Amino acid sequence: xxxxxxxKGLAALISSNQVDNSSSSFVPEFSIELIEPxxxxxxxxxxxxxxxxxxxxxxxxxxxxxxxxxxxxxxxRYYLIxxxxxxxxxxxxxxxxxxxxxxxxxxxxMLELAIIxxxxxxxxxxxxxxxxxKQMQDEFGMSHDEIAKRVxxxxxxxxxxxxxxxxxxxxKEDILNGxxxxxxxxxxxxxxxxxxxxAAADLVVKRGMSVREAEALxxxxxxxxxxxxRIWKTTDEETNKYSDMLSRKLGYTAHITKMTKGGKLxxxxxxxxxxxxxxxxxx
Length: 283
What we know:
It is a single chain. The longest helix is centred in the middle third of the chain and has 15 residues, at 126-140. The chain folds into 3 domains: 3-124, Conserved hypothetical protein from pyrococcus furiosus pfu- 392566-001, ParB domain (Alpha-Beta Complex), CATH 3.90.1530; 167-224, Arc Repressor Mutant, subunit A, CATH 1.10.10.2830; 228-283, no CATH class. Helix 8 (182-188) runs parallel beside helix 10 (211-223). By secondary structure, the protein is an alpha/beta fold. The protein has helices spanning 48-61, 84-92, 107-120, 126-140, 144-151, 155-163, 169-176, 182-188, 194-207, 211-223, 237-250, 272-282; strands at residues 24-31, 35-36, 67-71, 78-82, 97-103, 254-258, 263-267. The chain contains 12 helices and 7 strands. Keywords: Chromosome partition, DNA-binding. Residues 28-119 form the ParB-like N-terminal domain.
C-alpha cells in the first residue's frame, strides 16, 4: 500500500537520514523492561508462528527499524506507539535492549500512529480496523470526515468500516478468524434480523460462497421470494462486469439484474448523507 495514501504516517517520525529532534530523539539501545504495551493498540491478535519468524530474523539481522515510544506521564516508564511485533519478537529472541525513537505524543496521536502503522502494513483485520476508528470517534470526538483525513481514506470508507461493528458477535468471530472477508460482512449487513444474519453467515462459510453470492443470499432473505422473482434470470458475465464497474465508479454497491423483459439497477446507500453524496456523483 502506498504510504502517501495514509497521511504522513511513520515518515513524519523517521526519515532515512535523520530524526526530527524538535519532538523526537533516537536511542540506539533502550531497555525493553521500561516499555509498556500501547493501551490504544488496535490489533487484537498476533500469530505466534509469525513472531517466531520475526524473532529468528532479528537474531540474524538485528532490528532494522526502531520502535516508537512515548514517555508515560509522571513516570520513568514508556508506552509503545508502534512496533509491537518487533518488541514481542525481541523479547522472544532474548534481547534486553532495542533501538527506539522517543516521541512526545498525546493519547489521540498514540492511537492514530498505531492505526497508520498497522494499516500501512495491512496487519489489521476489518473488525480491528473498525474498532479503532470507532474509538477515535467515541473517545476523541472525531467525525468520520476527520478520521478519514487523518488515515488517508474517504469518509464513506470509514463509515462503511465502522458499520461492521453492528454485526453479531458470532459473525465477528468468523471475520477475525479469516473465514469471512470484509466484502462478505458488508453484504450480510443487509439482513436486519440477527438470527437470520448469523445463519446466513454460517451458510456462506460452509459453502464457500463468493461475495456476490452472499449479496444474492442477503437479498433473498431480506425480500423473500416474491412472485416477480419468477421472471428473473441468472446474471451473466457481462452483467456482473457492469455491476462491478459501476460499483467501483460510484463507490457504492450496485447490482444489475436481468429479467425476462429488460432488467433493474439497484444502488445501495445507508443514510441521507450517503444519498446526497451519491446524487452529486450521478447528477
